[in-house]
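lol forgot to send this yesterday, sorry. struct tokens for the thing we talked abt
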């Protein structure tokens, strides 16, 4: 028990000292289970349409017995998720400070927490501009320190994006890669220069470490931009995400080897994982790294699901040139001390522990070269060309003389179908 608790404590403490200031999804150690959903859909990218009935909800937990007096505000960001530098009154109707008013206390759980949620737009603030937004949450006593950050986007839905992801790439076929090809029809927008004024951002499976930005298309024909035969649209296929469910404290569920209670936490040990490089591809229906909060016997899992220390074991020799991380929405897609696996020479395996709320989870292991910032799947998960990946394509436009990037439209393309 001491070894398990010391491992979790060490990664949480190191996380609090190493926290960097940026605009990515982020939670400080006492906050957990950050989810950004659109109209209750937990399995869709966080993009809403400007001046529509769409709603985006940011939900999270605070590990505490009593509520904190939290506030939130919005920052408009450019296509690269850096602050646009706009005055708040330019991009918002209303006041850019509001209290987090929607909260509930956990019930019948071993770990006490407060569940919060914010839905936008609301009576306090409405987004006037399209583009990227970062919501920051902070204490009313210390407004300069972000306790939590969450990303979402607001689209004008004025362009049509059509395309496909194929295993037939410009580097050959059946080589573990996938290539995107797509068109952007901007007939409904007065884009001054189709070759230079559009920015297209491609991300896959919610990852933030391997995002591709395209400054110009391969060619144009009238009001249609073609993005074809571009080497930076060739992606490693990766593999289907691994899955587990820790929905019960009474019996093991999917992917769980054992459950035991060691005060003050339940401990869930997953079945041991192994590298999949070289294995035959196996299709599995996954959610591209997302998670769904669920306690199998509850009608209100948001406040009745418990928190458990979940133990990951990856059987493989030590890699001296890479660090290994658990990737998924449950880690906010961060290569942090908390999500980093640590090698145990005695068992010849990598081990990690995360304090997670009961639910259904997707994850994968990414190998990050020492000193690098981009994870690769080829080292542990393997790259398979039939893998089903979710590619989010977002089209931005900055008008001549403008000070912000409009999001003209976005769409999702799936590979493997």
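and heres what i got for the seq, position by position
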């Amino acid at each position: 028990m001491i070894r398990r608790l010391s491992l979790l404590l060490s990664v949480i403490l190191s996380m609090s000292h190493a926290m960097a200031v940026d605009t990515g999804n982020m939670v400080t150690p006492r906050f957990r289970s950050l989810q950004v959903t659109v109209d209750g859909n937990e399995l869709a990218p966080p993009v809403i349409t400007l001046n529509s009935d769409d709603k985006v909800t940011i939900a999270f937990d605070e590990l505490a017995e009593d509520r904190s007096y939290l506030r939130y505000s919005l920052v408009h960001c450019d296509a690269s998720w850096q602050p646009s530098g706009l005055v708040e009154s330019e991009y918002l109707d209303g006041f850019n400070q509001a209290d987090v008013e929607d909260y509930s206390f956990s019930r019948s759980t071993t770990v006490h927490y407060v569940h919060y949620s914010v839905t936008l737009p609301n009576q306090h603030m409405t987004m006037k501009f399209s583009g990227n937004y970062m919501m920051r949450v902070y204490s009313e006593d210390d407004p300069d320190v972000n306790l939590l950050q969450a990303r979402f986007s607001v689209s004008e839905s004025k362009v049509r994006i059509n395309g496909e992801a194929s295993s037939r790439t410009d580097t050959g076929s059946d080589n573990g890669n996938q290539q995107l090809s797509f068109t952007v029809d901007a007939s409904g927008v007065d884009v001054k220069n189709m070759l230079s004024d559009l920015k297209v951002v491609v991300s896959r499976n919610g990852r933030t470490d391997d995002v591709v930005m395209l400054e110009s298309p391969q060619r144009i024909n009238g009001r249609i931009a073609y993005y074809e035969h571009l080497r930076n649209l060739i992606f490693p296929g990766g593999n289907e995400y691994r899955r587990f469910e820790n929905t019960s404290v009474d019996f093991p569920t999917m992917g769980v080897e054992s459950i035991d209670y060691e005060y003050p936490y339940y401990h869930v040990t997953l079945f041991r994982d192994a590298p999949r490089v070289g294995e035959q591809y196996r299709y599995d229906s996954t959610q591209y790294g997302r998670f769904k909060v669920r306690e199998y016997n509850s009608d209100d899992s948001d406040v009745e699901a418990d928190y458990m220390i979940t133990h990951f074991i990856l059987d493989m020799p030590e890699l001296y040139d890479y660090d290994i991380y658990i990737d998924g929405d449950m880690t906010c897609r961060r290569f942090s001390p908390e999500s980093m696996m640590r090698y145990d020479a005695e068992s010849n395996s990598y081990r990690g522990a995360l304090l997670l709320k009961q639910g259904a989870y997707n994850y994968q292991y990414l190998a990050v070269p020492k000193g690098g910032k981009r994870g690769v799947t080829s080292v542990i998960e393997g790259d398979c060309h039939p893998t089903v990946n979710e590619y989010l394509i977002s089209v931005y436009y900055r008008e001549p003389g403008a000070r912000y990037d409009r999001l003209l439209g976005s769409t999702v393309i799936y590979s493997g179908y």
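The longest strand covers residues 359-369. anyway ping me if u want another try
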